[in-house]
Amino acid sequence: MASSTSSYKINFTTGVAIVVANMVGTGVFTSLGFQVVDIQSGFVLLALWAVGGLIALCGALSYGELAAALPRSGGEYHYLSRIYHPVLGFLSGWASATVGFAAPTALAAMALGSYAANVWPGLEPKVLSIVVVLLLTAVHATSTRAGSRLQVIVTVAKVVVLVVFIGVGVAVAVPQPIRFIPQPGDWHLLLSPAFAVSLIYVSYAYSGWNAAVYLAGEVAQPQRNLPRILLTGTSLVLLLYIGLNFVFLYAAPLAKLKGQVEVGFVVANQLFGSAGGRLMGGLITVLLISTISSMIFAGPRIVQVMGEDLTGLRSLAVVSNAGVPVRAMLLQTGLTLLFILASSFQQVLVYAGFVLNLFTFLTVLGLFVLRWRQPHLPRPYRAWGYPFTPLLFLLLSGWTLLYLLRDQPTESLYGLLTLLSGVGVYFLSRRRPTNTA
Question: Which residues cross the membrane (predicted)?
Answer without folding.
Answer: 12-37, 43-66, 87-115, 127-143, 150-174, 194-217, 229-252, 279-303, 324-342, 348-372, 384-406, 412-429
